[in-house]
Every structure is written in C-alpha cells, then in structure tokens.
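Sanity check

After download, print the first record. It should look like this:
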Amino acid sequence: MIANFSHELRTPLGLIKLSCTSLLADDVDFDQETRREFLRGMNAETDRLEKIVDNLLDLSRVESGRLRLDKCPTDVGQLVREVMTGCKIQTTQHRFVHDFSPDPLVAIIDPKRVEQIVRNLLGNAIKYSPEGGTITVRGREEQGQLIVEVSDQGIGIPSGDLERVFERFYRVENEATRNVGGVGLGLAVCRSIVEAHGGRIWVESALGVGSTFHFSVPLGVVPEALSEQATLG
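Expected structure tokens:
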C-alpha cells in the first residue's frame, strides 16, 4: 500500500518538476505551442494530485464523522448526462450510452457527492477497458430506491476480488491491471458517500467481458412543487 501510494504521488510530482525545469532552462527557447503543451501536462498532473488529496480528505471526514451531505431535489438523469459529457473528452475509444427514462428521475440527494460517485465509476470504466467499447449508465426507480448502474466492456474483475474492491487502498493486482494507476481510494470513497445516503454499492463482473457497478440510495420524499422545479443544485 505504501509503495503504491508513494508511486502515485511521485509520478505526477516528477512530471511537474520535469516540465518546470525544462521551461526554466536558459539554454532552450521553446516555441509557444511547446510551452502550452508543458503547461497542459502540468495542469493534468496537478488535477491528479488534487484528486488523491481530496479522496484522502473525504476518508478522513468519514472516519471522524464529519462527512456532511447537502441534499436537495435533483434530476439524477440530467446530472449523469452532464458528467458523461465531461468524461467523453477523456477518450476517443469509447461509446457512451445514457439509458434513463425521458421523464425526470428526481431524488433527494447531495448532487455534488453523487456526481463524485458517477465521475469515479466512469473514470474506472474508461481506465479498465483500454481496448474501448461501450460504457452504459442506467438509472431507475425501484421500491423507493434510486438505482444507478455503470457498465463497461473491459477486463473484468476476478471473483475473489469483488468484495474487496471497495476497501480503502485495495487494488486488484494482476497482469491486466499492472499498468493502470491508482491507490485504491476512489471506490472506498464512493462506498462511504453511498452509505452516508443510506444506500449500498456493489459490483458484478466477468473476466474479459466487463463489469457493472451498481449503487442505490433512498429516493426520499420529493414535494410535488419541488419535483417539477428540481435542479442540479
């Protein structure tokens, strides 16, 4: 765990340091586009570091009982659509399918935290299906629960790891995942957020076929007037 964590920190720090050193060199005069390329790389690696730190802070809040939810009526279908739009720029190999009813699916949730869950699951779906394929997000109401599913056509997860992937710092270690970065925090944070909503999260998977991550949270009682005017917060 310590080795993985150290590697995940040192890699972006090393790339940022290299870019800074190159831009500050007195004996090289980079053109404007090359400078912008260095800056884009630094920005991406800074985002990567920020995500690691944010996940650590979220786990700290959970353990200390300080994770707070700011709930409001939210059209989950629209929230998911906006997250998917943002994720499409990360890949050209994947096809994204938004499978929700055309009618608003409104729930009393913390929209920023549920967005965090969906963004994490979509990011994993992209990372763990390196050959591309279809990524589908489905949503439905079932017995007072909001259920969201994120499916990919990726490498899959061994059956012995299905129960452990939500543990903090746990990563599936095999030849297929060796080149995929991560410290095993994202899914642990997702589980904490789902459980804070009073729901649960689980995964079904088959090696070489793909994985489907499911999470459910109570819909909550949405007053009719608020349901009609639900926003993303």
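If your output differs, re-run the checksum step. Summary of this record's structure: The two ends are 37 Å apart (CA to CA).
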